[in-house]
Design brief:
Structural class of chain B: alpha/beta
Strand order of the largest sheet of chain B: 2-3-5-8-9-10-11-17
Helix content of chain A: 25-40%
Mean pLDDT of chain B: 83
Number of helices of chain A: 10
Number of strands of chain B: 39
Number of helices of chain B: 35
Low-confidence stretches of chain B: 1-12, 61-67, 76-85, 97-112, 1125-1148
Strand content of chain A: 15-25%
Helix content of chain B: 40-55%
Largest interface: A-B, 50 and 77 residues
Largest sheet of chain B: 8 strands, parallel, barrel
Strand order of the largest sheet of chain A: 1-2-3-4-5-6-7-8
Radius of gyration of chain A: 24 Å
Structural class of chain A: alpha/beta
Mean pLDDT of chain A: 91
Low-confidence stretches of chain A: 1-22
Oligomer: heterodimer
Largest sheet of chain A: 8 strands, parallel, barrel
């Protein structure tokens, strides 16, 4: 801190500065990004990521986003985070922050209660309780706040229902038990009805700015007829996107393999389900197991494959950047920087202009 | 006043300014004294009003810290309620059979090690202290207790990615290394995978090392081992955490290679082992032969990421201690004991690490000793002190921490189990009694325990709460506790009173972490403050301005604008001095003056104060605290900062913004920026980005009062009527008068500057257009009388007359000498000349003054054209011929010749030579162009007798009869011409005293003439004379010159205050302009250009001289006394060619 001089004493000398002190212009205002309606790119696809936002997947911060963007050398068109029902809140701050940052918020709206642990089965926010109307007030409030936000946002309600780890999986609601009337199975049908119920309620609050994505696992688990993607489909008027999670090996015991089979069949499945809808790879990632295979090679292959013309209906991909500890003390390291090679492969692959770094508005 | 009417000039009117009755001065003097006394009294009253401390009413919340925290009745003994259902984790790792003992490891000999043994035994003991380099108290503790330590562990190396490799980041602390060496303590640098400030871990580089190709691993090991041995450290303490156990085998191989490399260099390999699930990442059996010491981290049962609970309960501690001892040899293990704890507040995701000292001050402020009858206890089952309290927001806090009692129990337990030593994690803020506990023998008795009873606070500064707005309590007090030995031999205790430390009570970062304040220091500034206000207005953001009183005094309008636009003000002292270096009285004056000023300008007070220079929110020295607590006693809240953008460094907008981001991400919420003190362009640009960033972050930007949950009126209360009315009135009037004076001076000086510049340009322009070619003399050579008034000129008169007589002039010449009663033989010399040359005529008269002599001369002159010259001035052969040329024009009444200094030997004379060149002659050229010459010098001029008669002859009214006459001629409508071709050399005074006498005469005479002819000034009838040259004299030669001492005083003060660097460039520039002018003048004059350098000393000499004579002249004028000739002393150095000049001559 320099002490201000006493220029008044230098009236004779100060004249020069008075004469040269011409008025300056204010620095221009930094306009917040204006979000209108999301447009789908004719060619190319949006790239985004979930960036390890903590245990509840909702500790979104500008610092984390900027750090990730700096690390991978690319802005993110989509930033993903969660909103767990157990919190009974709308992630207003997160969504505003992401939009203000110039990205499209993708929210995993997950109906489960604390402690948020997998493989526990349904809890107080079960699909049936939703269908019984027990959570209408919360859904309505959530819809109201989504409407108030007004900007575009994508919501993945109850993701990966064709697995058996989350409490909203069809697995927990009768699984493959035949419906008493009509074709179909109880498990997926309960999910489908709950999905429609929630979408209807939110739309009824006027939240037209919300886009819905049907977010499955790329392969059903258990792999059974009743658990196929079509069984979960709420219908084309209930979703704006179709998509799935796609992971390479995540645990010590997993076998290493190539990327293409992880994508080909699920892509074909959802494409046939909704030929007119854009496809989103809602989560993708892989662990680091240097003795089994190269994460770098896997990432390079993934990015090359997903932008090949064969899969040109993919309009968005979202990378899952997280490291977690498993029960046996081992870690699953899905971070993009789990090794220098992996990071470099990601940087190189994602740098292709095919991957769009910001949303296009219409 | 007997001032002659100007149109009556020529009549024998009285001497101008003469006050024969002598009444004027006494009256003026009385007036001056009265005014001075009043002014002094006013000033004194004003200053006294500043010493009266403004009445500030602190919001009650800040006033009493003690009432803010409330201890809760119910002890939070979570250990008692510990659900025993789950199997303790340590049992998972417990080895069952002693038979699994590994082979005895090869230990490196302990060299140069201080021998410390367990008290009462000869068993050697390792004692390690964990050092925190960010913490002053850590160093203090090390210095005080080094003799009890063998090792000091310092965070030094961290692993990280760079490109596709793992590299080492080193934070060397050579000072500590040297200090430790002098104390005989071995430095053990820590190699960790900590990343960033928060203590988070990055496991990937470690995993990469484990799996890397052998060459890469070897290179890394070579690097780290080389660094360790080069720094003369005892070895390395590896602290890798959260590493994937999948890679355990590879990692153990890596450790083995590292150990080999270290041991080859005579260094030890230590390993930090966290107690908990993470133990799975350590193959302790395989590691024990290669590791010299395992450090079992025996605290952290619950830490910041966990729920509230003991940090090392007895059961947990002993369980893990036993488990660890099962691996390798017990003596291989060192027990790492905690010295602090955590403060978990409800609703916060993470607990806050606190030292023992901080735990004590929380307990003290919460009044724990008053509320809980049994006080704070350390006893079973957890054997760890804990308490809960409510903060001012009503948030419940739970504190668990370790003290000397837990420490003593743990040390004794680990010694009993055969551990090889203890490590203190960490020093700084620890319970001072742990050092006594270390010295206690295994067999305790109550008398030994008294050593731990008193808790004596040291120099520590403790903090409570979060935020950058602090209140301070500097009272220190001892605490005490009662210790006893429980049935099972462990020590338990009850705190009876808590020690009080110098404590900062922090506020401003409450439950809502979204609030951020932008603060601007050092303003207001006329350029930048308005622009910053514009940006804030555009963004709809309110900020807090910590203003400097002296600047606010200059720009009260800006202060008003800040408040009008809804921003908050804070006090930043009056002179931006360092309060840590000021006396209390000075601090008080600084704060009061600024406060009074703010009150006067805005009608509000401010309760916020921020010290210049030391606004960091974590002061570490008591010196920094003292002035803050003084400010607090005056009623201020101390608003520090915790996001320092360092915008004053001006190292780029990006860096400024980056620092703001980092500071904010680290949890700071008071952003420091500056709106003055230099070019704030970068601040301005950074500001828009910072605002955008904060808003993107989701932050709410508020003034400081909102951080405190207060209203605007709380921190900026409007003045209340009836309180301190008189004091406030005096201060207000004082500031207004001061400000008015200052504004007046500022305006005046600004105008002066403009006029000086304009005049300079005009003079240069006019002078350059003046044609001064030598006129042909041939056809106009009328008869002339050369008139010399002589008084005691014996030394010079002969040569002067010779220079006149040896002229080329062919017209008729009469040389008329009026001897004005000389007593030195002047008359004889002239009479002698007259006998040889018929052109010479001598008239003697009794002494009557120069004017009377000249008057006589004009009456006696034979011819109508009279050439005047001083007895000490020498003509050239062409002078007379050139001088009369303008007289061809019948309207020309007088012609000025061109005088030069003929004796440029002494510095004083050389200055004058240059002055004649650049000042007088340049001016005269310019003035001649517009016929507004103000003086035709008596030293060399030609006059028309008829013209002189028409204005009544030479007047005796003034000391400057030439000026007087010139003005009178102008008045009568005569033209005054100038001919530079008519040269004369005159003698300039050679001593300062003579010069000063001469200039006094000129100054006084000029003032008299101007006064006498005052109706001409600004009179359009007299054209350029009335509108330009006469006002010029008033302004530039009298007013401005009179003001220079004040300006120079200001300059000097400014230099003394250390602003020399800022001033110097201006000063140089100004001198350069002067120099340029001088060079131009010399060029016009065809003088050597090098003469111009004299302008530099001349500036210094003349400034003093001229203002002195002007003030003297003013004083004399007011006195109204008669002023004599002040005749110049003749120098003996008169050259044959030269004359001596006397009396009034050209005035500028």
């Amino acid at each position: 801190m320099t002490r201000p001089a006493l220029p008044r004493l230098f009236f004779l000398l100060g004249l020069a500065s008075v004469l040269t002190g011409c008025p300056r212009a204010l620095p221009p205002r930094i306009e917040p990004p204006k979000a209108a309606q999301l447009a789908l790119p004719a060619t190319g696809a949006y790239t985004g990521a979930y960036m390890d936002f903590g245990e509840k997947e909702d500790a979104v911060s500008v610092e984390a986003i900027e750090e990730f963007e700096k690390m991978v050398g690319k802005r993110q068109a989509i930033v993903a985070s969660s909103s767990y029902w157990g919190e009974q809140s709308f992630p207003a701050a997160n969504i505003r922050l992401i939009a203000r940052h110039g990205s499209l918020p993708l929210i995993f709206w997950s109906p489960w209660d604390r402690p948020y642990e997998e493989n526990r089965g349904p809890d107080r926010y079960s699909l049936t309780s939703i269908l019984e109307g027990k959570h209408d007030a919360y859904i309505d409030r959530w819809g109201d706040e989504a409407k108030a936000f007004a900007g575009p946002m994508v919501v993945s309600f109850a993701n990966e229902p064709n697995g058996n780890w989350f409490p909203w999986s069809g697995f927990f609601y009768g699984a493959g038990k035949k419906l008493s009337k009509g074709a179909g199975f109880e498990g997926p049908d309960t999910y489908r009805r709950a999905f429609r119920y929630v979408v209807d309620r939110v739309r009824a609050r006027g939240a037209r700015n919300v886009q819905w994505v049907l977010h499955l696992m790329n392969y059903p688990y258990p792999f059974d007829m009743w658990n196929l993607a079509a069984e979960y489909d709420p219908g084309s008027e209930y979703c704006d996107w179709v998509g799935f999670s796609l992971y390479g090996p995540q645990y010590n015991g997993d076998r290493w393999g190539t990327f293409t089979p992880l994508l080909a069949w699920p892509y074909q499945t959802v494409s046939e389900l909704h030929p007119a809808k854009p496809v989103m790879v809602v989560e993708w990632g892989v662990g680091e197991f240097p003795k089994k295979g190269s994460k770098a090679a896997w990432i390079s292959e993934a990015l090359a494959t997903m932008r090949s013309p064969e899969y040109n209906r993919i309009k968005a991909i979202v990378f899952w950047h997280e490291r977690w500890q498993n029960k046996d003390g081992s870690y699953s390291n899905l971070r993009v920087n789990s090794s220098p090679d992996a990071l470099q492969a990601y940087r190189d692959g994602i740098a292709d202009p095919y991957w769009l770094d910001r949303p296009i508005w219409k | 006043m007997p001032i002659p009417k100007s149109h009556s000039s020529g009549t024998k009117s009285a001497f101008v300014f003469l006050d024969p009755a002598g009444r004027r001065w006494p009256r003026i003097r009385v007036g001056l004294v009265l005014f001075g006394l009043l002014f002094l009294a006013g000033a004194a009253w004003f200053i006294q009003s500043l010493l009266v401390t403004p009445w500030l009413r602190l919001p009650t919340s800040v006033a009493k810290i003690k009432e803010e925290l409330k201890a809760l009745q119910r002890p939070a003994d979570i250990a008692g309620a510990n659900p025993g259902a789950r199997t303790p984790t340590w049992l998972k790792f417990k080895r069952l059979a002693e038979s699994q003992k590994t082979a005895r490891r090869a230990r490196t000999p302990a060299e140069k090690r201080r021998s410390v043994v367990q008290p009462g035994t000869d068993i050697p003991e390792i004692r390690v202290a964990y050092y925190g380099d960010w913490d002053q108290s850590s160093l203090a503790s090390f210095a005080a207790h080094a003799d009890q330590l063998t090792h000091i562990a310092v965070e030094r190396y961290t692993v990280r990615w760079t490109d596709a490799r793992v590299s080492i980041k080193e934070e060397a602390d050579t000072g500590l290394d040297i200090f430790a060496a002098t104390k005989g303590v071995i430095v053990m640098p820590i190699l960790s995978n900590v990343a960033g400030e928060g203590g988070g871990r990055i496991p990937e580089p470690v995993e990469w090392l484990a799996l890397a190709p052998p060459e890469a691993r070897a290179a890394f090991i070579e690097d780290i081992a080389g660094r360790v041995s080069a720094s003369k450290a005892g070895g390395i303490l590896v602290d890798f955490q959260q590493v994937d156990p999948t890679h355990n085998d590879a990692l153990t191989d890596f450790y083995s290679e590292l150990s080999t490399a270290l041991r080859a260099r005579g260094c030890e390999f230590w390993m930090s082992v966290p107690m908990g699930e993470d133990l799975v990442s350590f193959q302790l059996e395989k590691l024990s032969p290669i590791v010299d010491h395992f450090l079992a981290v025996l605290h952290g049962e619950n830490s910041d990421g966990d729920a509230a609970g003991p940090t090392a309960s007895k059961e947990w501690f002993e369980g893990w201690l036993e488990t660890a001892a099962g691996y390798g040899e017990p003596s291989q293990w060192i027990a790492v004991l905690g010295t602090g704890g955590f403060d978990w507040s409800e609703g916060e995701a993470r607990g806050q690490y606190i030292s023992f000292v901080e735990a004590m001050s929380r307990a003290d402020y919460a009044g724990l000793d008053e509320i809980r009858k049994e006080g704070l206890r350390v006893a079973g089952p957890a054997f760890e002190p804990n308490f809960t309290y409510l903060d001012k927001d009503g948030t419940k806090h739970t504190v668990w921490f370790q003290d000397s009692v837990t420490f003593l129990n743990q040390v004794q337990t680990s010694r009993r189990r055969g551990f090889g030593g203890v490590a203190i994690d960490r020093i700084g803020g620890e319970d001072p009694a742990i050092w006594a506990a270390l010295r206690l023998p295994a067999k305790l008795d109550p008398t030994l325990l008294t050593a731990l009873e008193r808790i004596v606070p040291g120099e520590e500064i403790t903090g409570i709460g979060r935020g950058a707005i602090v209140s301070i309590n500097t009272e220190r007090e001892d605490g005490s506790r009662a210790l006893e030995i429980s049935a099972d031999g462990r020590v338990q205790c009850t705190y009876t009173s808590f020690p009080a430390y110098t404590t900062l009570y922090r506020e401003g970062s409450g439950p809502d972490r979204r609030k951020v304040a932008l603060t601007f220091d050092d303003g207001p500034d006329p350029t930048w403050t308005p622009m910053i206000l514009d940006v804030l207005k555009r963004e709809g953001v309110k900020a807090t301005f910590f203003i400097v009183g002296s600047r606010a005094e200059l720009y009260p309008g800006l202060v008003r604008r800040i408040v009008d636009e809804g921003h908050e003000l804070g006090n930043h002292t009056y002179t931006h001095g360092n309060v840590a270096l000021m006396s209390d009285r000075q601090v008080r004056l600084e704060l009061n003056a600024t406060q009074r000023l703010i009150e006067t300008v805005t009608g509000r007070s401010t309760l916020l104060f921020r010290p210049p220079y030391n606004a960091d929110s974590h002061p570490t020295k008591l010196d920094e605290i003292r002035p803050l607590s003084l400010a607090q006693s005056l009623g201020y809240m101390i608003a520090l900062e915790d996001v320092d953008t360092m915008d004053w460094a001006r190292d780029g907008v990006d860096k400024i913004v980056e620092r703001a981001k980092q500071g904010r991400a680290a949890g700071g919420n008071v952003v420091l920026l500056h709106d003055a003190g230099g070019d704030r362009e970068q601040t301005l640009n950074a500001l828009t980005q910072i605002i955008d960033y904060l808003q993107t972050r989701g932050d709410v930007i508020v003034p400081v009062h909102e951080l405190l949950g207060k209203s605007y009126a709380d921190t900026m209360p409007p003045l209340e009527g009836g309180r301190q009315t008189v004091v406030r009135f005096v201060a207000g009037v004082g500031f207004r008068v001061f400000h008015a004076l200052e504004s007046f001076a500022w305006t005046l000086l600004l105008i002066a500057t403009l006029l000086v510049l304009l005049r300079t340009i005009l003079v240069l322009w006019l002078a350059s257009r003046f044609r001064w070619d030598q006129a042909p003399v041939g056809d106009f050579q009328p008869p002339v009388t050369v008139l010399i008034a002589a008084y005691n000129e014996a030394k010079v008169i002969a040569s002067t007359m010779r220079s006149v007589l040896e002229t080329d002039y062919t017209g008729e010449i009469e040389v008329l000498v009026i001897n004005d009663g000389s007593v030195d033989g002047t008359a004889a010399i002239v009479a002698d000349l007259a006998t040889h040359d018929g052109r010479v005529r001598l008239i003697d008269q009794p002494n009557g003054g120069k004017a009377s002599a000249l008057d006589r001369g004009f009456r006696e002159a034979k011819h109508d054209l009279v050439v005047l010259l001083d007895a000490d001035t020498q003509f050239t052969r062409e002078t007379i011929g050139q001088l009369v040329q303008p007289m061809r024009d019948e309207k020309t009444g007088a012609v000025s010749g061109h005088a030069k200094v003929g004796n440029p030997r002494s510095l004083i004379a050389r200055c004058q030579a240059l002055e004649y060149i650049c000042g007088f002659n340049l001016d005269r050229r310019a003035y001649a162009k517009w016929n507004c010459i103000t003086v035709v010098p008596g030293a060399i001029s030609a006059l028309r007798v008829s013209a002189v008669r028409s204005v009544g002859g030479i007047s005796h009214d003034t000391l400057a009869e030439d000026t007087d006459l010139t003005l009178a001629l102008h008045r009568a409508g005569w033209r005054i011409a100038y001919t530079p071709a008519a040269l004369a050399h005159t003698e300039a005074p050679e001593t300062f005293a003579d010069l000063s006498k001469q200039r006094f005469r000129w100054a006084f005479g000029t003032m008299q003439s101007l006064w006498k002819h005052r109706d001409m000034t600004f009179n359009p009838r007299f054209g350029a004379l009335g509108l330009f040259s006469l006002p010029s004299i008033w302004f530039f030669q009298i007013l401005l010159v009179a003001l220079t001492p004040f300006v120079d005083f200001g300059l000097l003060v400014s230099f003394l205050l250390g602003n020399g660097a800022a001033v110097l460039p201006y000063l140089i520039a100004y001198l350069a302009i002067d120099m340029l002018l001088a060079v131009v003048a010399c060029a016009l004059e065809r003088e050597p250009l090098w003469r111009a350098w004299i302008i530099i000393p001349m500036r210094v000499i003349y400034r003093v001289l001229l203002s002195y004579v002007v003030w003297k002249a003013i004083k004399r004028a007011l006195h109204g006394a008669l002023v004599g000739w002040g005749k110049l002393e003749r120098t003996a150095s008169v050259d044959a060619r030269l004359n001596v000049r006397q009396s009034a001559a050209p005035t500028r």
